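User: I'm writing a short report section on ligand binding and want a predicted complex to refer to. Could you take this sequence and protoporphyrin IX containing FE and write out the structure as tokens? A short remark afterwards would be nice.
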Amino acid sequence: MDQPRSQFQAVWDPLVRIGHWTLVIGFFTAYLSGDDLFNIHKWAGYVVAAYVLTRVVWGFVGTRHARFTDFVRGPGAVLGYLRGLASGKAKDYAGHNPAGGAMVIALLFSLLVTTSSGMALYAVEDNAGPLAGIVTEQTFAPIAGMLNESGEKPEEEHERGSGHEESAAEELLEGVHKAFVYVTLALVGLHLAGVVASSLVHKENLARAMVTGRKRRPD
Ligand code: HEM
Ligand code: HEM
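Assistant: Sure. The structure tokens for the complex follow:
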């Protein structure tokens, strides 16, 4: 706080900052409304998907520290940073550190699979949403036999029991959707642990920097 202003620099642009906190709200809203409240679920999920797509484009054309080339590093750099974190002597970076950069990619990928499997499920179940007509039962026809443990055709499955029986495509997409929700949650847990660990080691509140956009210049 009592450091001169010049020791700070603008790192995160408004798209990254506003996008991040919109993502956090969108993700948890989608998570909490997944079981019922489908209308809210759908729109929260679309917000997350829109952010992810925008962020991927911004990773190529955005401001300096928003670009993938600024923070995507090899496994050696990631391990080196994590080792430094463990010994309390991790190198300070202006933008994302190498481990944080790997986490950004993992989070974006996991969110992409979560949202696109949700949209595909919606298309197959209700023939609605942005993938309606693009992803259909037929899309999965070539692998439906393999997916059906009993080897029955999806039509036969439909006839069994009362109410709506799930087709192989629905079962697959629902499985992927749910699995990636949990993958994302696990990554978010690691992400938060990383933010706390790096904040402690570098003696800088990184969550606040994601609000103000400003970070202390690395030594
Ligand atoms: C209250 C909870 C959260 C806090 C305090 C937080 C904090 C942060 C911080 C400090 C950064 C910058 C890391 C750095 O300095 O290198 C960051 C980046 C990021 N976080 Fe979070 N985060 C939270 C929740 C989430 C959630 C729930 C998600 C995803 C579902 C997420 C996804 C991301 C992504 C994708 C980035 C990269 C930002 C970019 O480069 O555009 N965060 N977060
Ligand atoms: C990051 C964003 C998202 C998260 C965290 C999320 C999470 C969830 C969760 C927790 C469930 C409940 C699973 C269960 O019943 O155990 C669910 C179901 C579902 N989600 Fe998502 N979802 C997201 C995005 C989307 C999107 C964009 C769509 C497309 C419209 C979508 C469509 C669905 C559908 C159709 C179901 C099944 C609802 C049902 O039949 O009960 N999701 N999601």
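A remark for your report: The CA atoms of residues 90 and 191 lie 17 Å apart. The longest strand covers residues 8-10.
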